[in-house]
Amino acid sequence: NIDAALTVYKEEYLPLLQAQPGFLQVIWLANRDSGAGWGMSFWSAREQMLAADQEGEFFPKVLARLAVYFHDKPEMHYYNVI
């Protein structure tokens, strides 16, 4: 299911993510054996990232769509890059 998720992500969501205000980069890690995945996105400002993560905005929609391809329910965590 990782390949299917990657196709959906690249074709449907990466262009939309790149258009989000403040978005800089994303990195995806996947374990094909377990079906687990981990994505990290980088933003120029915390406020812009949080705006994309509000109910009905970009991230909740993407996670709901991609969740069917992964083993566990999606979780969100926030970190500061220093």
What do these coordinates show?
This protein has 82 residues and is an alpha+beta fold. It contains 3 helices and 2 strands. The protein has helices at residues 2-18, 46-52, 58-66; strands at 23-31, 36-43. Strand 1 and strand 2 form a beta hairpin. It starts with a helix and ends in a 16-residue tail after the last helix. The mean pLDDT is 83.
The helicity comes to 40-55%
- Contiguous uncertain segments of 5+ residues: none
Q: What would the average pLDDT be, to the nearest integer?
A: 83
Topology as a string of helices (H) and strands (E): HEEHH
- Structural class based on helices, strands and sheet pairing: alpha+beta
User: How large is the radius of gyration?
Assistant: 13 Å
How are strands sequenced across the largest beta sheet?
A: 1-2
User: Main β-sheet, in a few words?
Assistant: 2 strands, antiparallel
Count the strands?
2
Q: What's the end-to-end separation, in Å? A: 34 Å
Number of helices: 3
Shape: globular
Determine the strand fraction and express it as a percent band: 15-25%
